[in-house]
């Protein structure tokens, strides 16, 4: 229904070729691997219960920092990077020195959590642009099972809130995953590449239809099997410094395009 013809072909390619830790072709995770990953996810969710029950959106994470941020100076092109651990671990001042970019990533978060804190961590900071990189933890079920329709609705809600406050939106693709290392066993079985492809197709289409910028990290980070390049991550999910070096110029280009395009 949402999948374009080219994506269907790519999905079939990903599903029909095996992937082994030492190379070779791709295969879906075994039932045992998925069961173990689900068990680890349940353990993670139990460990997070105090936070989720008392501050589901984790509004407390940046409360003090936000209170000390002055309004943008005249002509300042402030950008807020909103996301999960992929954003949280990104040292923005190292990759964008001197730029008025604010990191509002929180490890493990899903789009409903980001939606809850969207006013405090985005709108109230008065950025020109919000860069949203999310979705991978929604697919994994970090805060419970979610359908693609539910994930898409949260993206749309954030975009509409931003537009109402004259904030330009850049939707980043969900980044790819791989199963090339033992550490990837915690993440890969819960993030089927075909679901990532479908969600990215929707994000790209939504941006085109609503005058937003689509930032395609995915295409720049995959190998010939359609999985995250081995040299870009040690655990098959989280970017390493080499990956952030790939991502940074793409983000800067999307910011420039968004500023040039203006609001719609």
In brief:
With 264 residues, the chain is α/β, with parallel strands linked by helices. The protein has 13 helices and 5 strands. The chain has helices at residues 5-16, 31-47, 49-54, 63-67, 85-88, 92-95, 111-116, 118-121, 136-140, 148-164, 193-210, 217-221, 241-261; strands at residues 79-83, 101-105, 129-133, 168-172, 213-215.
Would you write up a description of this structure?
The protein has 264 residues and is an alpha/beta fold. It has a single domain (5-261), classed as Rossmann fold, CATH 3.40.50. The chain is built from 13 helices and five strands. The protein has helices at residues 5-16, 31-47, 49-54, 63-67, 85-88, 92-95, 111-116, 118-121, 136-140, 148-164, 193-210, 217-221, 241-261, and strands at residues 79-83, 101-105, 129-133, 168-172, 213-215. A five-stranded parallel β-sheet has the order 2-1-3-4-5, sandwiched between helices. Helix 1 packs antiparallel against helix 11 and helix 10 packs parallel to helix 11 (193-210). The chain is globular, with a radius of gyration of 18 Å. The chain starts with a helix and ends with a helix.
